[in-house]
Design brief:
The protein is mainly α. The chain has four helices and no strands.
């Protein structure tokens, strides 16, 4: 087992670099062209945008915690978790970390009322979907075998749902008990 402090450092560096760039640097460059506006007040759309940013960041942070503590790895594909993470938000949906990033981008779109950010959000969602389908899922099936295949049948890819009979337990196990 790798030292947890070192895992946290790597996970935080990844987060600052990749999601941080996707949520901060790139949107900043996109709205610097004048196609977004700096909010001068907080209307309903801006408050909803801020709520989505906070919710998306919170979801990402909780997933990051699960990757380090349960999976023994980071979100970086080159340092992925060594155990299948099927607890927390992963009980309800297979890709909550991506959903958190898209929610935060949608919030930025609302906050700055930017059509350019709206297009970027849709593009990022499509890129995440392709990455999951073409890289992540085949890789996870190869690494975790039947456990991941069963997880795929019990937990939806993008639309969260409550675990029911035959689904995930609180400790991340799959069960067929009623």
């Amino acid at each position: 087992m790798r030292p947890r402090a070192f895992l946290w450092l790597k996970a935080l560096l990844f987060t600052i670099t990749i999601p941080g760039g996707a949520l901060g640097l790139i949107p900043g460059l996109l709205i610097s062209d004048g196609r977004g506006r700096v909010p001068h007040g907080l209307g309903v759309l801006e408050i909803l945008g801020l709520a989505l940013i906070v919710a998306g960041a919170g979801l990402y942070a909780s997933c990051l915690r699960q990757f380090v503590q349960v999976g023994g790895g980071t979100p970086a594909p080159i340092d992925a978790p060594r155990a299948l993470v099927a607890v927390g938000a992963y009980r309800y949906v297979r890709n909550p970390m991506y959903l958190g990033v898209v929610a935060a981008l949608a919030g930025e779109t609302m906050l700055f009322r930017s059509p350019t950010l709206a297009a970027y959000t849709v593009l990022m969602g499509a890129a995440f979907h392709l990455f999951v389908m073409l890289y992540e899922e085949p890789n996870l099936r190869a690494r975790f075998g039947e456990g991941y295949r069963r997880y795929q049948t019990e937990v939806p890819r993008w639309l969260p749902r409550r675990p029911g009979p035959g689904r995930m337990t609180d400790d991340g196990r799959l069960t067929t008990d009623n």
